[in-house]
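JOB MANIFEST
job_type = single_chain_structure
chain_count = 1
residues = 245
[input]
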Amino acid sequence: MKTLKFDKNNYEFNKENPIGVYLIHGFSNTTYEVKELAQFLSTKGFHIVANNLPGHGTNIAECNKAKYTDWINKVTQDVAQLASISKEIYIVGCSMGGVLALYLASIFPVNGCVVGGTVLKFNNPRKINYLVPLVHKIIKRSRKPIGKSSKRFYGYESYPLSALNEFRKLNKVVMKQISKITSPMLIIHSNSDRLSIKENLTIVKNGVKSIKKKILIVEKSHHNLFDNNPDQLLIFKEVLNFINH
């Protein structure tokens, strides 16, 4: 039986703390995949914010209505609000959330940026860059390419293709912005990730102009790096150390 990992809720903890941490989930997923990290960091006293992106935590039809500019506007507004009451700001993103985190780090003087399983380059680029733009208005969804042995879906059970086309557009925008990033970076990649190819690690590492860059490569984690996985405790420890230093 397939289990749907889905969360409609937004999360905020420790509003009074002056150190703000903004968490961003991935494409077609929900706050489910960052909730455990949010809860972990909240126990350390940080002001944590994790919201569902436009079209997420709803349904595939709503997701297909979202534009990449909606995602950019949402995270920009959220971080601007967080910055207005914080002394320090850290951004953490997984998958497409990592792409949005990079965008934020390119326009805000954040104190640090953590990206994991970033997808700036797709593992099936020909299909997404050439086929999806042609067919997404006719075929609204496709089967979600998860691991063969997996029986658990994150977010929607299939890919919203119009939204996937917007993800493609988002990547083109962020690739132009990445050289503007100078904030400290923690870049995480799993060698077991089936959705984010290792080339993405290289793109981020070589693309940002940050003096302080730390690379964490884990072996066993699936694509959803911050949710339950064999490397989760190590990842959480490294994120905490990054924020504390």
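[summary]
The chain is about 40% helix and 20% strand.
The first helix runs from residue 32 to 42.
exit_status = 0
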